[in-house]
């Protein structure tokens, strides 16, 4: 099931926030749960895409140490006291005095950052609405131009890291519209503001410390270290911790520059990120498939992984020409909009892209945009365009009603994850419905009727 895209709060903290330019960003919110190696958490979810600004790659999960009181960002005296304490901490961590002095010179609380952080939209979009933008004709055409203009660089990056040039270009296209919108918020000021604010203090203190290390290494000057209001930076929107772990100096100028007009370092860093997280050269992210009339929908979902021969015996065929499912290792059948929508066979590289942004909509957007850039067709299957996404309140209600009907979701948290999807499938099977695990408004209305 396409997983519902929610902020990463609680024990696994993420900066549920921005891409390069929030008015233009189409990045879906990620979802919570188990952390992936050096990437962010990953968890299943269904239909909707929550439109909200947020950062791109995150190196690791950082546990919250909740402050006793959330600070008043307008309190300049309190902020400067916090900065003094953090400067001492940075010095103890080995950051040079000169870097610390330059970094915090004139830094004050950024009201714009706090306003954005506290007014994130609850508006939700369906997957198909998201894809209409993520893989629009304009974005596809611009991606082909970007691929052509940077073909030599992207070919060299693909040769070194084994990640398809089109995948790297697609991430570039979704993160910053091919470098057009890289963000203009001062990163040190933004990270300090959000850390002082206190609601996700540990996460932003870690990102701020990483940003200081980047300055200390000489990769960028403070005034040029700009990005989204929540810390995502450059052409492909790295968080500072991800930069430290994966950024490379691909053009050999002595700096890892993901901010400048030359995108080489940013694109190579993105490829290295994916390679570091297990990218398999030559393996597709996924392929559109046709399911047989008698397909067992309890076999769908990314928790069920089978080899190609299994799916071929079941009658699964490629949507493009009706060929057999190719063998690229264990694969799952994903139904991002239930049995009436597009069906995909997804491979391990799907999950690798998830480490960049753990939202199925984002992964499908990247993969589909990459396919279109390389000349592939739009999805052949349809979407249930009459459906709308469940609201936050409706997701909670769905879980409560499923549990009350005897199909426990284990917890009521508004997250349509694996347990809720299983409960939906069990309910559907008991009611004689197609057990595709699709958490739709029609399903909720049926539960309301008892």
Q: How are the SSEs placed, and which strands pair?
A:
Elements: E1 35-36, E2 39-41, E3 48-50, H1 76-92, H2 97-104, H3 111-118, E4 124-126, H4 127-134, H5 137-149, H6 151-161, H7 165-176, E5 185-186, H8 187-197, H9 201-217, E6 226-227, H10 240-246, H11 264-276, E7 286-290, H12 308-313, E8 317-318, E9 332-334, E10 343-346, H13 348-354, H14 360-373, H15 392-404, H16 418-430, H17 441-449
Antiparallel strand pairs: 1-2, 3-4, 5-6, 7-8, 7-10, 9-10
Helix pairs in contact: 1-2, 3-8, 4-14, 5-7, 5-14, 6-7, 6-11, 7-11, 7-14, 8-9, 9-10, 10-11, 13-14, 15-17
- The H-level CATH homologous superfamily of the domain at 76-117 and 184-266, spelled out, is Bacterial muramidase
Helix content: 40-55%
Q: Low-confidence spans: pLDDT under 50, at least 5 residues?
A: 1-26, 29-69
Mean pLDDT: 85
The percent range for strand residues is 5-15%
- Largest sheet, spatial ordering of strands: 8-7-10-9
Number of helices: 17
- What integer value in Å does the Rg equal? 22 Å
What order do the helices and strands follow? EEEHHHEHHHHEHHEHHEHEEEHHHHH
What's the overall geometry? globular
Query: Could you give a short account of the major beta sheet?
Result: 4 strands, antiparallel
Structural summary, described in words:
The chain has 450 residues and is of the alpha+beta class. Among the domains are: 76-117 and 184-266, Bacterial muramidase (Helicase, Ruva Protein, domain 3), CATH 1.10.8; 392-449, no CATH class. It is 42% helix and 6% strand. It has helices at 76-92, 97-104, 111-118, 127-134, 137-149, 151-161, 165-176, 187-197, 201-217, 240-246, 264-276, 308-313, 348-354, 360-373, 392-404, 418-430, 441-449; strands spanning 35-36, 39-41, 48-50, 124-126, 185-186, 226-227, 286-290, 317-318, 332-334, 343-346. A 4-stranded antiparallel beta sheet has the order 8-7-10-9. A two-stranded antiparallel sheet has the order 1-2. A two-stranded antiparallel sheet has the order 3-4. A hairpin with an 8-residue loop joins strand 9 (332-334) and strand 10 (343-346). Helix 3 packs across helix 8 (187-197), helix 10 crosses helix 11 (264-276) and helix 13 (348-354) crosses helix 14 (360-373). The longest helix has 17 residues, at 76-92. Residues 1-26 and 29-69 have low confidence and may be disordered.
